[in-house]
Recover the amino acids of this structure.
């Protein structure tokens, strides 16, 4: 799959003097030693947040959606904002593993495992919101097309919410399978290194009896390719369908044909930002700087500045179309409620503009792209900005739609509305901490795959051949 | 034969003991009754058993309440009476009476419970119209705060002991006079009872006290016409109406009657358009002022001068004494228009000043209104109190010269400006008796309290106008140990008959026999034998000059105050009724509280809020915290209330509603909302004046939350005027080009095929056929006066929950039908448009296609229907509804949730007491059993009263005839809002029936018909008729402000 030879001009993907054993050691170590104090602190904070989230949801389920400050005009607020936000974050993992796999991007190997895990957890978090935001969540099973005794009563295939149900569950299933398929050889490695019986048994079960035989590898590779092929359209379709929740409605500010590409770009944007946030910490905490190199960080920052600019173009296009349509309802939504800093929610629009469009432009500078502090800061800023984007789309559009008589009082969340969001962070990080402790955070097998072409020491070894005359080089290496 | 044994269960197979037992039992399976060893009373009420328990509690309440009544009167359903079918409503004609107000109504009784009030179409006075307060009165019947038994010194006694003690006390008075203090009594038989009672106690007298009295008018009429009476007004005969501060559509005298009459002049026949012209002069925007064609602002102190100026102008002398140019021009224009329409002009004035009313009488006389628009042949009895009489009574009480005071209907301890004097006086009266049905402020001062029946439990009669009678018959047994006050008086005057017998004795001879009495009860009314001809009266002009001189020169201070009544609350009678408390005020759109109304100009100088700046206006709108102001009136307790900025208020005038600041005794809903401001009124010229000429107002540097149901008030945005929301034009424009609205629509829809082809060309999809019935509604914005009667009717009919102030503050109000109020034009004196907004039942409904579970869908009859059972509460439909008429159950407002005990949240979303009050078994008796009580987490909305539609269709089907929807004014179905409307603004029916009223209405008004947000191609089944303002200007009054 990879070139046997990689140019010296390309940065190595694995730094340091590594061999296959060293790679296994480096990556398996965190799993085989006791977790650090820092891990415990982080884990317990996450669990505490999760528990507060559980309590918030318990209140909401028991007493009703009145535990939140939504109202008869703003029917969706933080709940769906958070849903779209998490779904967006859940885009990077599959994009990295599937699309970059198909595009033969070797650098994906360093980050794909963690990014995919992040995707899975983000989709789990996202799924909580449309579920628990239902007024009668105990009837949520109504959204599934199951045979029932209600005669001709069936789900409504016209509803974008129903499309969401299918889109998200499909995406989740395929992402999970893809991720798990990749994990199989690594689980096998951990099992083989296990020193206790229990460990051996558990990792034995989850590795599905991986033996590393050629047949296994062959099937594994084919499956990965098939799943990559399946996932690729899903990366584009999920957020497209999420955007249909808005685009197919009649609400000014929602009813926009630009939404599908704009949402997908935004999702990749926020997804990469989240990957950055996690990787910058992960490589430090687990000492994986050799595997998640500055080169990786920089590559992802490039994606961020690209998608951020696409999103910026979308914002400007929206404004242009708002003007061009000469539709007073749409114009009001775009120019009064949003672009006007002094309107009640003007701050959120300009917050979004600053975080998403203006600030990522600093990544045009290589120096800043390779600066870890700047990267981390920007990744947080971008995620704040992307949260604002969803908030702007959902709340400001609903806040003042057609009939001025129904324009409501200011919507701001209650403690339990925020609690649900915090709880989703708790869920996400609890999962992530457990993942970091029990799963290989970098795909060992795949790193090994690129080690001999892109590892620093191997590249150095074959560096001299670049000095050879072209004919000789061609003679030796061309097929 | 096979020996094979077929078995249904293992029990049968094994022939176990349990099986043997179960075979012998009548029901094999255990019945789903509350089982276990818990007693019946300890078991919780599961949702499924709701109706069962409701029935039981109703029966229990009825039995408990009627324990003194022989059991034979209870209705055993084993012997089903002919006229009672379970599940079928009975209607009893009766009369809503409160103080002097009397409205003929039908009480809808389901399974022994009155659940809804409908107007009585037979009444020539109200013609089937009702008001919000009439509609809400049924809830008062089930009020938790009604007094439940007679008390002496607050301890419960039996009726016998009560009578014995009281008679003893009365005989021990030693000849000290007995005074009966009541609000206006319109009942002729009750007056007879009073006379009998008073005759028993020589020297006694009857004092009539009205909280909002019309003393000035009564005395002025006495001075000029020799009759201390109020004539009938005939707004329907008036082509020009000038109102000088009389809120005749909202609170003045008989608003239901006047709304009916007024709306006749506002209906426009497109072929020969004609409409009445309404000038209004006032200080604070009232419901009537909001409907006026031309409205002028003045200070309350200027009212006398304005009346005089109008009089002068009518006499051709011009309005010279008015300095304000706009006002002067307005008066002169009004005078000119009045003069051109002599004989069909009417001037009414809300002043309680005798001199002012004398001049108004002179004006009407000059306009030859007598016998045309003012009818002296049938005088109205709505208000009879003279403030001077009460002043004298208070003096007498304080002097110790009143032996016994009997109080019915009056509550001077609350409504009298010097309530302390009255309270002090009460202490000096030996025997104080209250008949009031709640422990109101006055009743709390009384030793003897014997609560009266609710009118739905009473017998009686009423004579709202001379010659017109309306009867009261009970619709339910008395719920509590209460006794009608007439019964008590009869008893204490030594009569042996009860009031029912008395009433019969009074009426049967007059009517000529029992059958006639039965018919009168059945109809509820007796009309005058001949069609009444309006008559005039001789006018005595001697006092006019002096009166005019006396009123012309009043001076006011920098800021003046007007105390006004809210449509819902009145003088406090509506306070305590949750439906009325939660009813948005038609003008301010505020619920629950009272507040200080200030003008935008005053807001700028006093509170530093400039509504002209969009960011400040936004900040004012979106935050319910309103700045508070302190109002000080010389020598009286200052009042600190939040300020609401209401356009259309005179820049130097503030307004405060009376009727608030009541105690928990009136109702859980009353405590802690608003403040009483009756004490700010004063006595002027021996009549109570509700205007204060000089008040101090200061920023109190504090805020208070006001629960508004509408925060934004104009349809104009910087991006253009949203003319698709509603349409209005001036009468001049309409006459010039009647097709203007239609042309506008044509232009708007041009890109999608124009008006004709819009339905098919505005979409990618095939249009649907609409065979059979297709329901439609038409709302005439020109007739709608914005009174909110429909809103309360909808509440009652559809079990719409009350959510309390804290929830309205969060914009969680549940009204299925609301009245949007928009301003246009000049912010200081805007035009007002009311638009009733309910589910538009769109044929291409945006809510329907977004529901993931198809809980909201379209019926073959064009209804957008909700299956509550199916709803999972995603709220997507509410978001996608352009009309924002869908309401979500944010909490368990009704107690109908599947989760028990979940209304006790303490922190976030704490429910107000009123929600629990509405969930009480007693309050729940008002629920309409035909309509599901919605549980938490589902969306609800207007159903076009689908339960009525089904009932009506069934009726037609049973009689094998087509449905009647308005042809020849015959109706199988009227929606609750349509039935309640006093202005006949709402027409509903089968739009596929070429003869139905709705088809007729649309066909007759092709030029004015429009659909809200038509360009969205949602194809509403509700259409509106454009508002036409009778102004001469063209274009100016189009919505642009």
């Amino acid at each position: 799959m990879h070139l046997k030879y990689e140019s010296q001009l390309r940065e190595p993907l694995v730094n340091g003097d590594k061999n296959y054993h060293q790679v296994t050691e480096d990556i398996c170590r965190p799993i085989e030693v006791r977790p650090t104090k820092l891990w415990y602190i982080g884990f317990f904070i996450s669990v505490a947040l999760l528990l507060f989230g559980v309590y918030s949801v318990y209140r909401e389920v028991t007493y009703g959606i009145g535990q939140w400050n939504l109202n008869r005009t703003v029917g969706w607020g933080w709940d769906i904002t958070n849903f779209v936000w998490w779904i967006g974050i859940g885009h990077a993992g599959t994009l990295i593993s599937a699309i970059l796999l198909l595009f033969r991007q070797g650098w994906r190997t360093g980050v794909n495992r963690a990014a995919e895990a992040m995707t899975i957890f983000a989709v789990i978090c996202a799924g909580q919101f449309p579920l628990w935001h239902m007024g009668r969540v105990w009837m949520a099973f109504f959204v599934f097309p199951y045979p029932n005794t209600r005669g001709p009563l069936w789900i409504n295939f016209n509803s974008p919410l129903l499309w969401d149900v299918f889109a998200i569950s499909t995406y989740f299933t395929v992402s999970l399978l893809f991720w798990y398929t990749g994990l199989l050889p690594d689980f096998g490695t951990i099992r083989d290194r296990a020193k206790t019986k229990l460990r051996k048994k558990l990792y034995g079960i989850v590795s599905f009896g991986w033996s590393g035989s050629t047949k296994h590898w062959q099937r594994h590779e084919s499956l990965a390719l098939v799943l990559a092929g399946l996932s690729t359209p899903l990366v584009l379709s999920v957020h497209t369908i999420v955007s249909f929740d808005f685009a197919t409605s009649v609400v000014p500010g929602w009813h926009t044909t630009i939404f599908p590409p704009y949402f997908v770009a935004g999702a990749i944007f926020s997804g990469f930002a989240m990957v950055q946030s996690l990787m910058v910490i992960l490589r430090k905490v687990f000492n994986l700087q050799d595997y998640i190199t500055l080169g990786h960080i920089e590559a992802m920052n490039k994606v961020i500045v690209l998608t951020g600019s696409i999103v910026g173009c979308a914002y400007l296009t929206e404004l242009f179309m708002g003007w061009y349509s000469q539709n007073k309802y749409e114009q009001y939504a775009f120019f009064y409620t949003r672009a006007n800093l002094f309107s009640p929610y003007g701050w959120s629009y300009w917050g979004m503009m600053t975080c998403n469009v203006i600030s990522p432009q600093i990544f045009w500078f290589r120096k800043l792209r390779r600066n870890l502090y700047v990267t981390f800061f920007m990744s947080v800023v971008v995620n704040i900005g992307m949260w604002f984007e969803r908030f702007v789309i959902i709340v400001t559009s609903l806040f003042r739609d057609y009939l001025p008589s129904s324009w409501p009082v200011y919507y701001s969340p209650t403690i339990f509305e925020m609690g649900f969001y915090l709880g989703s962070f708790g869920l996400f990080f609890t999962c992530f901490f457990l993942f970091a402790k029990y799963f290989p955070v970098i795909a060992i097998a795949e790193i090994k795959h690129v080690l001999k072409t892109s590892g620093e020491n191997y590249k150095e070894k074959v560096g001299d051949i670049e000095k050879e005359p072209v004919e000789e080089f061609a003679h030796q290496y061309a097929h | 034969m096979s020996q094979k044994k077929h078995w249904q269960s293992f029990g049968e197979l094994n022939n176990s003991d349990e099986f043997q037992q179960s075979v012998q039992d009548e029901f094999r399976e255990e019945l789903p009754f509350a089982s276990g060893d818990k007693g019946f009373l300890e078991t919780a009420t599961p949702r499924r058993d709701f109706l069962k328990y409701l029935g039981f509690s109703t029966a229990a309440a009825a039995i408990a309440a009627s324990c003194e009544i022989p059991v034979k009167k209870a209705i055993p359903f084993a012997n089903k009476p002919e006229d009672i079918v379970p599940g079928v409503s009975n209607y009893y004609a009766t009369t809503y009476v409160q103080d002097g107000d009397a409205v003929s109504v039908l009480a809808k009784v389901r399974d022994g419970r009155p659940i809804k009030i409908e107007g009585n179409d037979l009444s020539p006075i109200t013609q089937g119209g009702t008001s919000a307060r009439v509609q809400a009165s049924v809830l008062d019947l089930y009020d938790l705060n009604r007094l439940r038994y007679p008390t002496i010194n607050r301890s419960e006694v039996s009726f016998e002991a009560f009578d014995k003690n009281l008679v003893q006390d009365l005989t021990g008075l030693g000849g000290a006079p007995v005074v009966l203090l009541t609000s206006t009594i319109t009942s002729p038989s009750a007056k007879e009872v009073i006379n009998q009672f008073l005759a028993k106690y020589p020297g006694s007298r009857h004092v009539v006290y009205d909280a909002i009295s019309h003393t000035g008018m009564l005395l002025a009429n006495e001075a000029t016409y020799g009759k201390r009476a109020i004539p009938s007004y005939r707004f329907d005969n008036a082509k020009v109406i000038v109102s000088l501060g009389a809120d005749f559509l909202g609170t003045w005298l008989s608003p239901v009657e006047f709304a009916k009459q007024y709306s006749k002049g506002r209906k426009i026949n497109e072929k020969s358009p004609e409409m009445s012209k309404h000038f209004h002069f006032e200080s604070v925007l009232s419901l009537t002022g909001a409907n006026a064609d031309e409205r002028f602002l003045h200070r309350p102190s200027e009212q006398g001068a304005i009346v005089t100026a109008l009089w002068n102008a009518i006499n051709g002398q011009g309005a010279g004494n008015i300095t304000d140019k706009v006002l002067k021009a307005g008066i002169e224009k009004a005078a000119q228009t009045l003069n051109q329409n002599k004989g069909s002009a009417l001037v009414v004035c809300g002043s309680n000043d005798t001199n002012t009313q004398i001049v108004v009488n002179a004006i009407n006389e000059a306009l030859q209104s007598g016998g045309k628009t003012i009818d002296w042949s049938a005088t109205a009895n709505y208000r009879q109190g003279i403030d001077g009489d009460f002043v004298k009574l208070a003096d007498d009480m304080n002097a110790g010269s009143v032996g016994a005071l009997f109080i019915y209907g009056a509550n001077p301890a609350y409504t009298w400006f010097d309530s302390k004097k009255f309270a002090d006086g009460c202490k000096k009266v030996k025997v104080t008796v209250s008949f009031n049905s709640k422990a109101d402020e006055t009743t709390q001062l009384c030793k003897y309290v014997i609560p009266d029946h609710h009118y739905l439990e009473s017998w009686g009669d009423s004579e709202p106008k001379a010659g017109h009678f309306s009867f009261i018959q009970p619709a339910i047994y008395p719920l509590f140990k209460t006794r009608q006050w007439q019964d008590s008086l009869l008893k204490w005057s030594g009569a042996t008959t009860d009031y029912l017998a008395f009433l019969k004795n009074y009426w049967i001879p007059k009517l000529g026999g029992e059958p006639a009495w039965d018919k009168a009860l059945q109809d509820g009314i007796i009309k005058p034998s001949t069609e009444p001809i309006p008559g005039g009266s001789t006018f005595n002009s001697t006092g006019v000059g002096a009166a005019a001189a006396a009123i012309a020169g009043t001076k006011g201070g920098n800021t003046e105050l007007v105390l006004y009544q809210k449509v819902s609350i009145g003088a406090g009678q509506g306070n305590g009724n949750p439906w009325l408390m939660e009813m948005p005020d038609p003008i301010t759109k505020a619920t629950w509280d009272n507040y200080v109304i200030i003008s935008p100009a005053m807001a700028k100088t006093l509170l530093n809020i400039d509504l002209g700046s969009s960011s400040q206006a936004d900040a004012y709108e979106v935050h319910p915290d309103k700045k508070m102001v302190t109002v000080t009136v010389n020598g009286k307790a200052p009042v600190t209330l939040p300020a609401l900025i209401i356009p259309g208020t005179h820049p130097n005038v503030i307004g405060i509603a009376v009727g608030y600041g009541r105690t928990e005794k009136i109702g859980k809903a009353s405590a802690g909302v608003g403040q009483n401001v009756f004490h700010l009124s004063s006595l002027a010229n021996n009549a109570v004046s509700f205007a204060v000429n000089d008040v101090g107002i200061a920023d109190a540097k504090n805020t208070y939350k006001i629960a508004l149901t509408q925060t934004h008030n104009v349809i104009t945005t910087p991006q253009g005027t949203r003319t698709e929301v509603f349409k209005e034009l001036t009468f001049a424009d309409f006459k010039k080009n009647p097709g203007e609205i239609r042309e506008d629509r044509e232009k708007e829809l041009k890109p999608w095929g124009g008006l004709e082809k819009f339905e098919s060309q505005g979409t990618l999809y095939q249009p649907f056929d609409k065979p059979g019935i297709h329901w439609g509604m038409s709302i005439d914005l020109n007739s709608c006066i914005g009174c909110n009667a429909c809103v309360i009717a909808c509440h009652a009919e559809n079990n719409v929950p009350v959510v309390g102030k804290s929830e309205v503050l969060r914009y969680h109000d549940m009204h299925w039908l609301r009245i949007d109020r928009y301003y246009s034009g000049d912010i200081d004196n805007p035009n007002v448009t009311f638009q009733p907004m309910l589910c538009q039942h769109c044929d291409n409904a945006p809510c329907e296609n977004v529901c993931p579970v198809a809980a909201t869908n379209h019926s073959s009859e064009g209804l957008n229907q909700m299956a509550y059972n199916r709803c999972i509460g995603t709220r997507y439909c509410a978001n996608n509804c352009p009309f924002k008429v869908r309401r979500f159950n944010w909490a368990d407002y009704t107690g109908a949730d599947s989760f028990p005990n979940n209304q006790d949240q303490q922190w976030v979303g704490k429910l107000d007491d009123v929600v629990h009050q509405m969930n009480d078994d007693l309050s729940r008796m008002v629920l309409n059993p035909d309509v599901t009580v919605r549980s938490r987490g589902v969306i609800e909305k207007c159903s076009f009263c689908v339960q009525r539609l089904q009932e009506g269709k069934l009726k037609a089907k049973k009689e094998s005839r087509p449905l009647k929807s308005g042809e020849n004014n015959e109706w199988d179905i009227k929606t609750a809002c349509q039935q309640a409307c006093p202005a006949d603004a709402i027409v509903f029916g089968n739009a596929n029936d070429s003869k139905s009223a709705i088809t007729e209405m649309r066909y007759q008004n092709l030029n004015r018909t429009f659909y809200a947000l038509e360009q969205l191609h949602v194809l509403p089944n509700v259409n509106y008729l454009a508002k036409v303002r009778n102004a001469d200007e063209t274009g100016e009054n189009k919505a642009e402000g």
Notes: Residues 1-74 of chain B form one domain. Chain B has 33 helices and 44 strands.
